[in-house]
């Protein structure tokens, strides 16, 4: 049937895949009626219905009926898919601790090759390499301890597995009717009939355009509404399986026979619903006239014309529609197993369980309902009541051309909001050892608990507004609201939000969290096993010089544990050895509950908290305060805190140093990790002063750091394997020697790296650019930079941007190769800068050097994403933002105060163009979302009184806002110097802009 790990399975496998699709596609069969050079007139004694069709008139277009209905066509689709798989068979595979660890390594490596996502593939590769480290430790442990089941063996097992998944999808996509008139467009509902909708005009999700005037004339009601596009999805899945078998293992002390069994089960479900709207739009080159005998309703509609005239017999109701999306999913899994060894008559077991949940909700107005008049203004008369719900009546005309005359007027805002939350929780407890096939659970007993997730929130308000002009309320006795509270700002009335939930991205994030938890578990086992090996070695050495005091203490302990019995010499000897072993193992801090174990747990939890984002960038850019913030839970225990700092600090060093500048330190991530770990664990000590146990501690922690760095920063399996594989060997054979060399020269590794970069620059000038053209020199430079990036994990601060015009095709090709190499190191950049590079390649293939040059520069700029405490114009920060990075742009001083101050200075309101320019060019700072919301001018805190006071004293406003910024950033562990530098930039820029003196 197949293989798994290093082994072979003989058996049967069955699978069944069913898919049923059904649907209608009306958009492909739409009717078209028209005349390209003359008039078109359609008239009916009863209802005139235009459904999913196109009408075209070169001149005038008129439609008449007792009632008129214009609606969209619908493309409806239903898809049901199911997949079932069953397998069973007899498997012959490697067993024992070493064999099972090798199986796990091979299985993880195979999964890495099959994984399409670069980050997940890198994490799988890291798991594979760390399994190899565990296998080597297992062999060493078998040799030291003499347990045959810790060595290599073979197993024979009977396994079975089955799985089933079902998915249902349903969608309805509208395709609106279109009416196009070169001159005038007129739609009339006469209302001469007796039907329920006699005299009504109803237009849904369709588009009307006229070069001249547009007239809607209904004896009864006019309804202009949006049409819903809907999507529904639901699914469920389940799986279960298990196996039983026997294994025979060999070691230095003979052979051992074990039996084992394991079971697993999983299930899940998901459900999603979404609706977005296709608005009805009316666009007229001249005047739009709307006349209804009764009500006129705009519900998801936009009316545009140079002038708008409306005569509504009863009520005018205008409301914006919100796009909505909801998603909910849950996945659970459990697994358990056990083994029993004959001879030693000992057993072991494991159990694990995990649960992933995702929940998302999104509601926001995309297109605001409204009447939008041009320079001709609007003249609207309503017989009874006008109601605006998140809708606007706008105009670019002067106020004297805008008139609204109504009995009463009501207005409300629409709240836009998006929330999502994802959760991963898992627990794994194991007695250590092999449980068949690739079910290796570590060399030592242990447990891993993981709880992590992500969440997001965004909100905005779609306000009702009427442009400046006259508003006449005739029925003052029944007027409920104060018209003075109605916004007159129609340009910025729609504060809509964009979706913040990405299902695929969050699914990957949860998978990353699970894998990081696995890697953390492997790291913990590596540390425990190293503690075991160290303790065995120490205990054996001490047995050569047992003191009388130790012998007496051992005899007393044995007799207390075995009352009424007389100890034999070997009993006392075994007790002495056990005492020495326990003392040595506890001293390492690598056992369960020890400082090293808790440090690993803290570091793993910190990385899980960063999962899904640019972990490499977050860590590589993290200063000591940021690491302190990530590891805040360990502050109560200095030893644990130091070890967690050492592990993460080692990963940071690996990420930052594994670049062109790493040549001075040997170019291997584990070597740089060792330097950072030594600085935390043994400050001030030279390599020659480290004891053997201290060297082993550095070696173990560097292996863990390098593995983590490779997994989290790598976007390829080779990067992960290089980083993790270098760990133990590189540290012991290279890193400590490099560190010693740097220490002997009185320099740090960073200074050595800086010397390397300077030397490279000089070499370029002397060897590459003498007598060469600028293009040739640039091409060589980019080629060498690309080569220097090979095998690295992050570009960090060493990225050199591409600036200026590309002078030739060779230079362009080299620059593209260099930037592509950078993108390969940074998860997430491929979606942004990668598109620009692909476009540049296409332009270059067509011979368009100018376009290629622009696109290359664009890709380079996109790589330089915005960071916390960056200061600049709002427009600049906005252009460099990265969606989902948790950062926001904060105006200092607030834009409301700036606008008020400017209007006071000019003695008039700003024009829309002036207001937009002020908003875009005002000074802003990039801050985490929670810092922004904690600021003194966020949301409702910036009331009219505060805006007025700030406008009168902008200098005081800047001081207050920057004081708040300093306090909030320092509370979150940011470097005080970086914060003060940012505040100085804010003050300097406001002075340069003339905001403050």
TrEMBL record:
<keyword id="KW-0843">Virulence</keyword>
<protein>
    <submittedName>
        <fullName>Hemagglutinin repeat-containing protein</fullName>
    </submittedName>
</protein>
<feature type="compositionally biased region" description="Polar residues">
    <location>
        <begin position="170"/>
        <end position="181"/>
    </location>
</feature>
<feature type="compositionally biased region" description="Polar residues">
    <location>
        <begin position="22"/>
        <end position="45"/>
    </location>
</feature>
<dbReference type="InterPro" id="IPR006914">
    <property type="entry name" value="VENN_dom"/>
</dbReference>
<feature type="region of interest" description="Disordered">
    <location>
        <begin position="142"/>
        <end position="181"/>
    </location>
</feature>
<dbReference type="Pfam" id="PF04829">
    <property type="entry name" value="PT-VENN"/>
</dbReference>
<feature type="domain" description="VENN motif-containing">
    <location>
        <begin position="687"/>
        <end position="738"/>
    </location>
</feature>
<feature type="compositionally biased region" description="Basic and acidic residues">
    <location>
        <begin position="539"/>
        <end position="558"/>
    </location>
</feature>
<feature type="compositionally biased region" description="Basic and acidic residues">
    <location>
        <begin position="72"/>
        <end position="84"/>
    </location>
</feature>
<keyword id="KW-1266">Target cell cytoplasm</keyword>
<feature type="region of interest" description="Disordered">
    <location>
        <begin position="68"/>
        <end position="87"/>
    </location>
</feature>
<keyword id="KW-0175">Coiled coil</keyword>
<dbReference type="GO" id="GO:0090729">
    <property type="term" value="F:toxin activity"/>
</dbReference>
<dbReference type="Pfam" id="PF13332">
    <property type="entry name" value="Fil_haemagg_2"/>
</dbReference>
<feature type="coiled-coil region">
    <location>
        <begin position="842"/>
        <end position="869"/>
    </location>
</feature>
<keyword id="KW-0800">Toxin</keyword>
<feature type="region of interest" description="Disordered">
    <location>
        <begin position="1"/>
        <end position="45"/>
    </location>
</feature>
<feature type="region of interest" description="Disordered">
    <location>
        <begin position="539"/>
        <end position="572"/>
    </location>
</feature>
<dbReference type="InterPro" id="IPR025157">
    <property type="entry name" value="Hemagglutinin_rpt"/>
</dbReference>
<dbReference type="GO" id="GO:0003824">
    <property type="term" value="F:catalytic activity"/>
</dbReference>
